Amino acid sequence: MSTGFAKLAGSALVVLIAPPLYLMLDLAVVGRLGGDEFAALAVGTLVLAIVSTQLTFLAYGTTARSAREFGAGRRSAAVAEGVQASWIALVAGAAIIAVVYPTAPWIMRALVPDDAVAGAAAQWLRIAMFGVPLILLAMAGNGWLRGVQEARPPVVYVTVGLALAAVLCVVLVHGLAGAPKLGLPGSAVANLIGQGLTGVLFVGRLVRESDGRWRPDLPVMRAQLVMARDLILRSASFQICFVSAAAVAARFGVAQVAAHQLVLQLWEFIALLLDSLAIAAQQLVGAALGAKAFGLAKANARRAVVSSFAMAVTLAAVFAVGVTLIPRIFTDDPEILAAARVPWWFLVVMVPVAGVVFALDGVLLGAGDVAFLRTATLLGALLGFLPLIWLALVFDWGLAGIWSGLLVFMLARLGAVVWRVRSGSWLR
User: Fold this and answer.
1) For a tag on the chain, would you pick the N or C end, based on fewer CB atoms within 10 A?
2) CA separation, residue 138 to residues 10, 203, 271, 353 (Å)
3) What is the dihedral of CA 121, 42, 156, 60, to 10 degrees?
4) Model confidence at 2, in pLDDT bands (50, 70, 90)?
5) How far, in Å, are 142, 188, 197 from residue 83 at the CA level?
6) What residue numbers bound the domain in which 256 lies?
7) Number of structural domains, the chain?
8) Is 178 left (phi over 0), alpha (psi -120 to 50) or beta?
């Protein structure tokens, strides 16, 4: 692994794993309040992730476009991509608050049949929801900074914000150091403050870089939204599947949905670890293609696949060995621990597959081949993941049925991206 690749991957790794690490702390802190609070936080964070990550193009699309400009020697144009993405983030964030805040109780009741859990989850979501615009601004900031290969600032901004949130979570949930004991709402307040600080820091850097050039540029925004269309459809297919999985798991009981979300959060943590290498590939492949250095683009693609697969095999081994120990970090509820055993082994099997899939996703995103990724993901979701989720409910397959769907989904994506990269069409 070259020094430049390692530096970019390391920066992306810190930025990507910091939020799930914080979420794991959040789950561990709230889990001590009881099973209902744990389940409410699990579902609340799922919905918050869904409504915010529908706009992941603010990070991934902006990275691809900024990297091309940067590779072609146009840094100011790369920064301008961040300005226009930030306008989109502000408008979209306000719209999400306007829709989700009043409908939070209905959303949670649709996902969770237990009234106490649904009510607590809605209360948490209504507080945390006000951080969405700043979450989206941080995505846009990450996007253009990655594009111009600035490794340090995103690490500092994300770490500072989430470190503050981590301290506030412990203090406010349990009422330490003279603070009021807020319980589950204290988790939402901590989340809001920490994410808000991170967003403000990203905006401050963009203001300094842009030299006052903040006027909306409609042609650039339209071009971003064309790429966004495919990325949003791709992201939506993920989220529809995961919402369906949570809804079906909830029908099997509170312990089942809590166990499902616990293992799913670990899966997302692993995915983000692997995504750090994919993002480095996206940055370097995008810049190489912007400079028309096709041989370098291929070399970066190979480096990403080898590095990601090696990391994935190591992670799979760690989670296989830790099957009895790792879940106890988050809860001591015996029913949740017993239920988590089933999806745990699916997780172990899927990780090496994900090592290859995520790396090649990064290569294709760097090449701007988002239309292909959209189609491949939609087909995998509609023909593999979703049918097995709902069949699990009909035939009472439990969490094994739900996670079988996720495994089939990953295998379908593996076949698609390997074929696409081997075809060489991404270079064009």
Assistant:
1) C
2) 18, 8, 20, 30
3) -100
4) low
5) 12, 29, 19
6) 3-427
7) 1
8) left
